[in-house]
Amino acid sequence: MFGITDRRHFMKHVAGAAAVAGPGLTFLSGIHAQAAELKKKNKSLIILWMGGGPTTIDLWDMKPGSPNGGEHKPVSTAASGVQITEHLPKVAKQFKNLSIVRSLTTSEGDHARGTFLMNTGRVPNPLSEFPHIGSVLSYQYAQDVEAMKNMDLPSFISVGGGRTGPGFLGMKYASFVVQNPGQPPENVQPPQDVASRMERRKVLFDTLEGGFKTNVSADAAQAHKDVYGKALQLVTSSRKEVFQFNSAKDTADLQRYGNDGFGRGCLLARKLVEQGVACVEVSLGGWDMHNGIFNALATRALPNLDKGMASLTEDLAQSGRLKDTVIVWMGEFGRTPRINQNGGRDHFPRAWSVVVGGGTIKGGIAYGTTNSDGTEVKDNPVKIGDLYATLYAGLGLDPATQIRDNLGRPTAIAGDKVNAIKALVG
């Protein structure tokens, strides 16, 4: 259910929770204002996470004619002058609403460190673990107390398993993990004799909770209570049916989205943001292609990506919801322009691409360029903080909004000395 919930990780992520709310409350007025604005506009973020490190040189920044170009051909999109791989024809039609950042440059080529960087906007720091962007948005939503009284669904949901925790914000803002999109989440179906049995279970839980509190810190006890409170809230929610695909429309939609894990995840993401969920993360793994990359792309990865990503974007655009939903397609790093001896590509964070769209982010743009063989950023380099500033700006949030870390220090949600990409959100 809620991510990172084994005992070791639980204790790790609750240790600094009190510091977030403790010292100096004057900064909270700005957070409250941001939260109210975010909730009023009902903004959401959808992360399409490509686990393993996607080969963006073969998707979004192709180099035909170069020895690094590979076997596939570029094709035109709905955006004038913007080309992508021939194996994403449905996504190509959505590029009036999507844009490519082709000049992202990051520092982490290790899977775990790169994953943390891209999910938080910060390099790993064992002294102060920064939260996942979904946890930050969940925290922002929670500051609007009146709005949250009617929010019985988790505000941050990860489809396929969360990789990064809530950090110093604490377990209250961890992701709710859905392993099987389209089916009821595990352990949220109430017993048939719901009123009496749930009351008895709550009494038993409160008794056990009392013993737990005597053996751990006050912060850990509160975080433990928060996690189970969120679970109980979902169990009794009148809207939990949103997780299930039971209607004829759902069946028809799955034909377009793809009846695989990623397609089902994208359909669930659409349904969840329609219900006002702040952040939904959908995973498509298998991108660590050190060998046989071109066949793997053409036969497996790209057909699945094409259906799910295109249908999600199209449906949100047609319903008008895309103007309130930011989409970001990304992984932990790109892959080497040079093709290795096994017909694959290796880890490469120095120059790669992400795709963004929705909210106030302009579509139809390819921002930044790499050189002719894809080995270096040629112009308009974008760092991770700049990307995060762009995502927050697309959601209507000031990237300079501050939260407090586990040491009580205020820190900007997008980092210091960062700039949103004006060509996309200016």
TrEMBL record:
SUPFAM superfamilies, alphabetized: Alkaline phosphatase-like
Pfam families per UniProt: DUF1501 (PF07394)
InterPro entries found in the cross-reference section: Alkaline_phosphatase_core_sf, DUF1501, TAT_signal, TAT_signal_bac_arc
Name of the featured protein: DUF1501 domain-containing protein
Lineage summary: Bacteria, Pseudomonadati, Planctomycetota, Planctomycetia, Gemmatales
